[in-house]
Specification:
alpha+beta, Rossmann fold, OB fold (Dihydrolipoamide Acetyltransferase, E2P), five-stranded antiparallel sheet, 18 strands, elongated, binds adenosine-5'-triphosphate, nucleotide-binding, transport
C-alpha cells in the first residue's frame, strides 16, 4: 500500500436501510464512513433511527437493504459474534451476581474457552483498565466509574475493532455522567479503537466526538467535527437541534445566529430588530434572556456574559434593539437530494 492509499474506514455504511414490518422507514438509505481510531457520536431526537443504525452495525437487527463494511470487509450478513464489533449497553448491564473477573470472562466461557485461559485473559484486561486489584468484587461493591471500566473490559475481551456504545451514560446522575464521559474519551484514545456512541445529548456528543453524525427522520442531516456542526449547521433542523442558535427570517432568507453573537441595546439607541424581553434567567457565568420580536410571535434568546448584564441589567418588559455582525449570520447550504456524509 503506498502512502497515498486512503486507510479503509473503520465502518462504512452504504445505502443502509431499515424498514420495519409495519412499513415505517427507521433508517433511510444512509451513507457514512467512520474514520479508524476515532470517536463518532450518532446524535438526534428520539425516533430518528440512531439506535437502529447502531444495532444493525452490531448485528442485533437485520438490514432491509444496503451494506455494512468493517475495514473493507462486508459484515452485513455475519452473526454479531463474528463481526469484530462489541457492544456496551446503558448502565453497563453487568451481571450483579458475578465478580468483575467473571463478568469480563463471561463471553469466553460462552465460547467454550477453558477456565484458566479465560480467567487469565480477563485478569489481563482488568489490569489494563486499572481494575486488576478489584477483580473479585461484585458490581454492587464498585463505584459507577469502576463499573464502567469492568463493562469496558468485558466488551474488549472479544478483541473488537469497533466498540458500539448505546446511550452508556444516560442512566447516570449528572456529576458521574461528566466524569464517565471523560473516561470514555480517555480509553478510546488509549486503546486506539473506533468508538461509535449513540446519544440524544448534544452536550455529550460535542464533548466526546471527533465526528458527530446528526440524524433526523432516518436520514443524516450533517456529519462533521463538533466545532463545524455547531458553527456551520447544515440545515435549520441542525441549528435548532444543537441549541444555542436563533433561526431568523431575514431579507436574505433564513439565517442562524448564535445567541451569544447577538448584541442588545436599549430600544431608543439605534437601528436593529425591535424586541421585548420576556424572561431573564441567571445561569452563573452568563444570563439567558428570552425575547419576543415586536409584531411577531417569534421568540429569540440572547446569552449575555454576567459582567455585561451587571453593567446593563435588563428586566422583563424592557424594549431593546437586537443587532449582529453580518458574518455571524449563517445561511444554510441548499438542500441536496443525497446528503454527502463522509467522515473518513
Ligand atoms: N422493533 C420495531 N418495530 C417497529 N418500529 C420500530 C422498532 N424499533 C424501532 N422502531 C421505529 O423506528 C424508528 C427509529 O427508532 P430508533 O430506536 O432507532 O430511534 P432512536 O433515534 O434510537 O430513538 P431513541 O432515542 O428514543 O432510542 C422509530 O420511529 C421507532 O418507533
Amino acid at each position: 500500500m503506498d502512502d497515498h492509499t486512503p486507510q479503509p474506514a473503520a465502518i462504512e455504511l452504504i445505502a443502509l436501510t431499515k424498514r420495519y414490518a409495519q412499513g415505517s422507514v427507521a433508517v433511510d438509505s444512509i451513507d457514512l464512513r467512520i474514520a479508524p481510531n476515532s470517536y463518532c457520536c450518532l446524535l438526534g431526537p428520539s425516533g430518528c433511527g440512531k439506535s437502529t443504525t447502531l444495532r444493525m452495525i452490531a448485528g442485533h437487527e437485520s438490514t432491509t437493504s444496503g451494506d455494512i463494511l468493517l475495514e473493507n470487509r462486508n459484515i452485513t450478513s455475519l452473526p454479531a459474534a463474528a463481526r469484530g464489533t462489541a457492544m456496551m449497553f446503558q448502565s453497563f448491564a453487568l451481571f450483579p451476581h458475578l465478580s468483575a473477573l467473571d463478568n469480563v470472562a463471561f463471553s469466553l466461557k460462552m465460547k467454550g474457552v477453558d477456565r484458566t485461559t479465560r480467567l487469565k485473559q480477563a485478569q489481563d484486561l482488568l489490569e489494563r483498565v486499572a481494575m486488576g486489584h478489584l477483580a473479585q468484587r461484585k458490581p454492587g461493591e464498585l463505584s459507577g466509574g469502576q463499573q464502567q471500566r469492568v463493562a469496558l473490559a468485558r466488551a474488549l475481551i472479544t478483541q473488537p475493532r469497533v466498540l458500539l456504545l448505546d446511550e452508556p451514560l444516560s442512566a447516570l446522575d449528572p456529576f458521574l455522567r461528566i466524569q464517565m464521559r471523560a473516561e470514555l474519551r480517555h480509553w478510546q484514545k488509549e486503546l486506539g479503537l473506533t468508538f461509535i456512541h449513540v446519544t440524544h445529548s448534544q452536550e455529550e456528543a460535542m464533548a466526546l466526538a471527533d465526528t458527530m453524525v446528526v440524524m433526523n427522520h432516518g436520514r443524516i442531516e450533517q456529519v462533521g467535527p463538533p466545532h463545524t456542526v455547531y458553527n456551520r449547521p447544515a440545515s435549520e433542523f441542525v441549528a435548532r437541534f444543537m441549541g444555542g442558535h436563533n433561526v431568523l427570517d431575514t431579507t436574505d432568507g433564513k439565517v442562524a445566529v448564535r445567541n451569544d453573537h447577538i448584541q442588545l441595546a436599549p430600544a431608543h439607541s439605534g437601528s436593529g430588530w425591535l424586541a421585548t424581553i420576556s424572561d431573564v434567567e441567571y445561569q452563573g457565568t452568563y444570563v439567558l434572556l428570552g425575547l419576543k420580536l415586536n409584531g411577531t410571535d417569534d421568540s429569540v434568546s440572547v446569552m449575555l456574559p454576567e459582567a455585561a448584564f451587571v453593567q446593563q441589567p435588563y428586566a422583563p418588559g424592557d424594549s431593546v434593539n437586537l443587532t449582529w455582525a453580518p458574518w455571524q449570520a449563517h445561511t444554510f447550504p441548499p438542500v441536496l437530494d443525497t446528503p454527502v456524509a463522509t467522515a473518513a
